[in-house]
Design brief:
It is a single chain. By secondary structure, the chain is α/β, with parallel strands linked by helices. It has one domain: NAD(P)-binding Rossmann-like Domain (Rossmann fold). It is built from 9 helices and 7 strands. Helix 2 links the parallel strand 2 and strand 3. The mean pLDDT is 93.
């Protein structure tokens, strides 16, 4: 059976760990040539070497998604090297926990720059290529916290709400060009970052107790949804926000 993404080129931001790493592996396993974007060059190169050792086609690009010139240069290099861009997964993000009265404007801007401006910059840079080829899949990673709210995460939730709006707005324009734009809102997922934020596991215990599926979410759970939305089979799905949280909130 042919790989569903054979001959396609994908970009995954925040690819050095967590959901981004799982997405990169899944898309590459489906046959795509995957460009790995992350600002942590050391971790990124190690991940690329690991994936390449498994026979997968990946190329690391140390990129800070808040750097307009850097994003444009990296995507131009992908186009020059591979000739096309079929898939963009906007995953890079940060999620500091800070009581609202302690949130400075600097921190507010830092979160929005990474989580929302980065989505805009990467998408704008791939847009001409996707329009010219008449095909594209853009998958944005939001957060289930947008649906429920959560204390001490106002900048983060605001940025993720912006991603939902971005997804809907762009989808309305993109369909005429053969491009779909969708958003996934993960629930609490067991990654390196969440383990640092919740070293005792108390938050996981609370969240899992309220889920329909009684286990911790894994990066692979999100990667599976990304892979479907990034595939040719998902051509009639666009402008959607899909909650992947084990049934913690049934919308």
């Amino acid at each position: 059976m042919a790989a569903p993404l054979a001959g396609q080129v994908a970009i995954v931001s925040g690819a050095a760990r967590g959901i981004g790493r799982a997405a990169a592996y899944r898309l590459a396993a489906d046959g795509a040539c995957v460009a790995l974007f992350d600002k942590d060059g050391t971790a990124l190169r190690a991940e690329a070497e690991s994936l390449a050792a498994g026979g997968l086609r990946v190329t690391p690009y140390p990129v800070d998604v808040t750097d307009e010139a850097g994003v444009n240069e990296a995507i131009a290099t992908v186009l020059e090297r591979d000739g096309r861009i079929d898939i963009l997964v906007n995953n890079a993000g940060i999620y500091p926990h800070t009581p609202f009265e302690q949130v400075t404007f600097v921190e507010w801007r830092r979160v929005l720059a990474t989580n929302l401006d980065g989505v805009y910059l990467c998408t704008r840079a791939v847009w001409p290529a996707m329009v010219n080829q008449g095909y594209g899949r853009i998958v944005n990673i939001g957060s289930a916290t947008f649906h429920i709210g959560y204390p001490e995460m106002v900048p983060y939730i605001s940025s993720k709400g912006g991603i939902v709006g971005f997804t809907r707005g762009l989808a309305a324009e993109a369909g005429a060009h053969g491009v779909t734009v969708n958003c996934i809102t993960p629930g609490l997922i067991e990654t390196e970052g969440t383990q640092v934020e919740d070293p005792t596991g108390n938050l996981f215990e609370e969240i899992v107790g309220g889920q329909a599926v009684k286990r911790r979410g894994r990066p692979d759970d999100i990667a599976e949804c990304i892979a479907y939305l990034a595939s040719p089979a998902a051509g009639f799905i666009t402008g959607q926000t899909i909650n992947v949280d084990g049934g913690h909130r049934l919308h």
